[in-house]
Amino acid sequence: MKKVNIKKVYTRREMKDFIGLTSRIYTGCPYYIPDLEMDIRETFNPANAGLENSDIQPFIAYDEKGNPVGRIAGIINHRANEKWHTKNVRFGFIEFIDDKMVSEVLLNAVEQWGKERGMDHIQGPMGIFDFDKEGMLIEDFDKMSSMITIYNPPYYPRHMEVLGYEKEVDWVQIRIEVPKEVPAKYARVASLAKEMFGLRVRKLTGTDIHKRGYGKKVFDLLNRAYAPLFGYTEMSDQQIDLYLRRYIPLIDKQLLPVIENEANEVVGVAITMNSLSQALQKSKGKLFPVGWFHLLRALKWKKEEKAEMLLVAVHPDYQGLGVNALFFDDLIPIYNKCGIKWAETGPQLEDNIRELTQWKPLQPTFTKRRRCYKKSL
């Protein structure tokens, strides 16, 4: 390529090019799951609650003919930098054609943007906060992605290495085949957890979530359970409200077991849902004119055989006391009843041994390694 022009995204046309670039890169790819365009636009909306403690700047790259060939966003999460005593600028939303000039221009733009704001390291792909999509796929490019994970072509990590980026952390996903019966170990431990510690499974209603405070209780637990994990920053009340409005209505409440103790305190939660991968592919990221129908159909009528295990969290004081066994004891019969044959977690940190070993009785497969890269500025 003779020339690449990099621009900060300000206009509607530039944002349209930013969003639409993926249709060029992933045309014909059976593994890519598009984001909803409305979600991307909302991310960059100045009124987005996620931006109350973060700065964000999208960039778009054009070739000499004015065709979009790459995109990226620079993100500075001030709360994360304060918590972890870092000066990191994050990059996210990165997409580019297989041309080193394009990937270099994109990353250089974020590097310079970060340095101008006093940052001394760059890391990514990461989001505004930690329930956004994170990590560049470095293995298993021939497996279906999901609505909560990044998919990218195999040449992306090659570009990162050539440009001097190195590994910071890796995540893996866990895939399980849903057994016909609850494994004996889980059934036994779940029974003991109920008898010895007074724990019980509760299924929330919409009224519980929105009027009885259980939505905030669940996210308060997530904040506490995930606090020690790489890069995590606690979500604010405004961010929690955003998640409750945007995502909880999509989830079948029977697939969301909450564990309470005798004092009615929430000590564990497993947020799972039917996969929407095929519906999102059919929608092509657009709700209109017919994308909404594919999503509604997947949620209400023709459900997929896969469950997404989005988030699993246990209060630190209750880890090792059978909470995870209660999740599986509850969910496995429901998965079978719903025709769910297999389930996949979101990305799990490779060094989170406590989290990874809990799946052993289900003979898990570890798959889809993703990497957060870093570089000094």
List the helices and strands and how they pair.
Blueprint: E1 4-8, H1 12-25, H2 37-43, E2 54-63, E3 68-77, H3 78-84, E4 88-96, H4 100-116, E5 121-124, E6 136-137, H5 155-162, E7 166-177, H6 184-197, E8 200-203, H7 206-210, H8 214-226, H9 237-246, E9 257-260, E10 266-274, H10 277-283, H11 291-300, E11 306-314, H12 323-337, E12 342-345, E13 348-349, H13 353-357, E14 365-376
Parallel strand pairs: 4-5, 11-12
Antiparallel strand pairs: 1-2, 2-3, 3-4, 5-14, 6-14, 7-12, 7-13, 7-14, 8-9, 9-10, 10-11
Write a short abstract of this structure.
The protein is α+β, with helices and mostly antiparallel strands and 377 residues long. The protein is 35% helix and 25% strand.
Q: What are its keywords?
A:
alpha+beta, 14-stranded mixed β-sheet
Report what the structure shows.
- This protein has 377 residues and is an alpha+beta fold.
- Helix content is 35%, strand content 25%.
- Strands 1, 2, 3, 4, 5, 6, 7, 8, 9, 10, 11, 12, 13 and 14 form a 14-stranded mixed beta sheet that branches.
- Strand 11, helix 12 and strand 12 form a beta-alpha-beta unit.
- Helix 6 crosses helix 12 and helix 10 packs antiparallel against helix 11 (291-300).
- The mean pLDDT is 90.
